[in-house]
Structures are given as structure tokens and as C-alpha cells.
Amino acid sequence: MVFKTPASGFKVRAWLLTACVLIIILPVVWYLSIKLEGEKPVIEMDEIRGALPSKSELSGTVVDMKSGVKKILIQLIKDNKEIILMDQAFEPSHWMRQPSNHRIPFTIPLDAKKMDISDGKAVLVFSVWDHSWRTWWNGNRIHLEKEISFDTRTPVISVLSGQHYINQGGAGLVIYRISEPCVRSGVFVGDEFFPGHSGCFEDNDVYLAFFSVKPDQDPGTNLYVSAVDDAGNASKSSFYYRILTKSFKQETLALSDAFLNSKFSEFESMDGWPADGSTVDKFLFINQQLRVQNNEMILNNGRQTDSKIHWEGAFLRMPNSAPMASYADHRLYSYNGNIIGEAEHLGVDLASLSNASVPAANSGKVAFSGYIGIYGNTVCIDHGFGVFTLYSHLSQMDVGSGDMVVKGEVIGRTGTTGWAGGDHLHYGMFVDHIFVNPAEWWDPSWIKNNITDKIQSAGKVKN
Question: What is the pLDDT of residues 163-188, one digit of tens each?
Fold first, then answer.
């Protein structure tokens, strides 16, 4: 028989008491540590850019990953008037359920007119509480104030230029004044947007926008001036215009194996070249994929232009040259008697003697000088406010990007680089991002009636 000593019995009772205390106290301490947590909620506001227009939205998320969001109060204070935008309470999360109040997104529509809010500064006041037991069960609270402003007035557009007659494939100019600084303004021609530019006139509120009508845009195409201010308020203004129809030539060009094989080697290093493809596959790569890439590369120059008119008078045509192809000719390509492709010719081909000198058509800054696929060695000149000239298939380039050139200065020599069947100059023009008919710009009367007279009558030009 074994007898327990009083000491050993005491130790057992002490251990049991300690275990009971720990079993009871530890969960209580753990529970209180959660309920008495001291971390404040976080307000994640979506960015508010500039002033708010007449109709807008206020959005964001309130986050409290511990005890959860208890209440959100959002107020707008304007001219000593308090408007409650949101006042909502949320039930505490249950330990047996997935928490639903740790992240509370909100979207509040703001209608300045219905809310009788005038333009000017206002204050957004955010107050958020969580379910913590701190501060006598009131919870942790965050208070945030954010200054905003309202601008509900749309820009006023006044068109200063008069009548506008534009040829299909041709260019035009609209001059207008806007009543306030805008993040974007310009001319829409159908879905095509041409940005306006300030800086030509001493009055910086006066803008000019060169634009073009594509060859396939008909006389019913809608044209108007558009302006959007910093708050997003938008306005439109119509102006008198008339689109004149033009006919464009269509021709079929027969492709020989001799020509194709002599040219393919120039493109073999291009990404995507179908080395194992057929002759037709290789032609289609050049005429479709590469043509699109090259046009984009050229026209991207139009997005960054000098806010100054570098040019003066009619543009020069390469001297002693014969026209070999016209703007907007629709070309069908045949091979072994079958039509295998088509393309629009977006410039004028001019031929003279081999390696003939190529003059700058007008003064400007060289925006690009280098090799561009089907265009070969190419020089692109920025004449200011989105007007550019293009010189392609050159055998030699005598200018580099950033160089300033004057009207008539030799910039290179004709050649056969790129997709060229013989020595010639491919001469093109584009306005912002659309190729236009260069022949208009060779005509002094067209320049006077459509460009310079409008500029002179619109206001005092900066020196």
C-alpha cells in the first residue's frame, strides 16, 4: 500500500488550480486584447484630380482589419452649410462567420446642382469608428479633413476663323478662343481628334488647330471644336465648313520575282520575318504588318510638335522632278496574275536624276532621321503646330534629329532604300497623326486663303 504525503497532494492541487486559472484567464486576456486593440481604422481615398465638375463620384475604402468598422460618417462643408453624404453603422463580426466589416468600399454620387453647391472650395470631413472597446466602448476613431473644390462651369469656345473649305484628303485650320485653361481642346473630324495649340498669338487664350479630312471621310462628316477643363466639364462649338469631294486613282502594280527577290534581303532582319514562308507570305509581311508598324512610327512624331510656326509661304516641290505616283492612289498588287494585296499610297513620288539633291520643303526642326522599313532612309521635319513633311527612300541623309533647317536647304539625296522600285523621292505630309495631300501646300493661293489670312485676321502673332 502507498500513502501520498501531504506535500505531494498540495502540489497536485496547486497544479490543478494553476491549470484552471490559465484555462480561464488566458482566453479572457486573448479576448480582451482583441476587443481593446488600439489600431485606428484607415481611410483609402481614390485620387481626386483637380476640381470636381457638376456631376462626379467620391469613392474609396475604409479598412479595419482587427475589430472591424463600426460607423462611417462623411460630411461636406461648403459655405457654412453641412451636408451629410454618408452615415452608416455596421454590425460587429461574429467569430463563427467570415468577417464582413474589415473592408468597406463606398461610392457616393455628387450632384452639385441638386445639392445646391456653388463653385469654389469645400471641405470633406471623414469620421470612422471601429468596434474596439477602447474609450468606454466608443472604439478607435479616425478624423480626416480634405479640401476640395467645385467647378461646374463649362468652357466657352469662340471660333475666330471664318469659312472652312476642306478637300477630301486635305488639311484645314480652325482658330478659336477658350474662356479658361483646359486640359484638352481641339477639333474633332468624325472620330479623329486634332489637338489645338496655344503660343502662336500674344493672347494665350487663342488656339489654332490644324486638322485633316481623310480621303474616305464623306461631306457628311461631323466637325466641331471641343474643350475639356481641369474638372472634366466639356463643351463643343460648331463652325462653318464644307468638305469638297475628290476622286483618287486606282492602279494595279505587277510584282515580278526579280523585284521581290532583290528587295526581300533588306527586310530579312525584321522581327517576324517569315524566313520559311512563300514569296506571297513575305510580301504580305512587308505590305501589311511592316507597313502598319512603319506608319505608326512616322505618325508618332506628330504627337510632339513645336508650338511655333517655323515655316513661311508655299512649300517647295523637289525641283526638276516628274510625278510618278499621287497621294491616295489605291494600289492593287498582282503576282502571277493574282491580286495578293492592296495599299493606299500616302504621299507623292517624285523622280529626277539618280541621287538628286532633296531640299527641305520649308523651314523647321528635324524630328527624325534614320531608317524606317518600307520607307527606307527617311527624314521627318516638324514645321510647328502639328504640320510635318516626310522625305523617304533616300540614299543619303545630311541632317540629324534636332537640327534646324531652312527652306531649300539640302537634307539628303534620292535613292532606292526601302520598298522602292527605282530611284525617287517619296514626299509626304501629315497633320498630327493623319497623312494629307502635299500638293495643297505647294499652292501659294491655297496657303494664303486657308492658313495665313486666317492667322493674320485672328489676332496679333507672337514674334
Answer: 999 999 999 999 999 999 999 999 99
Buried b (16+ CB within 10 A) or exposed e, 326-346: bbbbebebebeeeeebebbbb
Segment 264-291 shows an average pLDDT of 96
Query: Which segments of 297-416 are extended strands (E)?
Result: 322-325, 329-335, 338-345, 348-351, 357-359, 364-372, 376-382, 387-394, 396-397, 404-405, 410-413
Q: How many residues does the chain have?
A: 463
pLDDT, residue 8, reads 64
- Cβ neighbourhood burial of 400 (10 Å; 0-12, 13-18, 19+): exposed
pLDDT exceeds cutoff 90 at 66:
no
Correct CATH for 42-150 of 2.60.40.10, 2.60.40.1520, 3.20.20.70, 2.40.160.20 = 2.60.40.10
Looking up cell 512563300, which residue turns up?
A: 278
CB 173, CB 451: distance < 8 Å: yes
User: pLDDT of 186-206, one tens digit each?
Assistant: 999 999 999 999 999 999 999
CATH of domain 157-246: 2.60.40.10
Residue with cell 466639356: 234
Answer yes or no: are the C-beta atoms of 428 and 332 closer than 8 Å.
no
Q: What is the pLDDT of residues 298-314, one digit of tens each?
A: 999 999 999 999 999 99
**Residue whose entry in the numeric block shows the C-alpha cell 474662356:** 179
Q: Which residue has the cell 472634366?
A: 232
Judging by DSSP bridges, how do beta strands 171-178 and 206-212 pair with one another?
Answer: antiparallel
C-alpha 424/C-alpha 415 separation (Å) is 6
Separation of alpha carbons 64 and 72, rounded Å: 12
pLDDT in tens, 428-442: 999 999 999 999 999
Q: What is residue 139's DSSP assignment?
A: -
Read off the pLDDT of residues 16-37 as tens digits, 9 standing for 90 and up.
666 665 566 656 554 545 565 7
Q: What share of the chain is helix, strand, coil (3-state, %, to 5)?
A: 20, 40, 40
Q: Report the predicted TM-score, pTM, of the whole model to 2 decimal places.
A: 0.83
For residue 328, which amino acid is it? A
Would you give the DSSP letter of residue 91? P
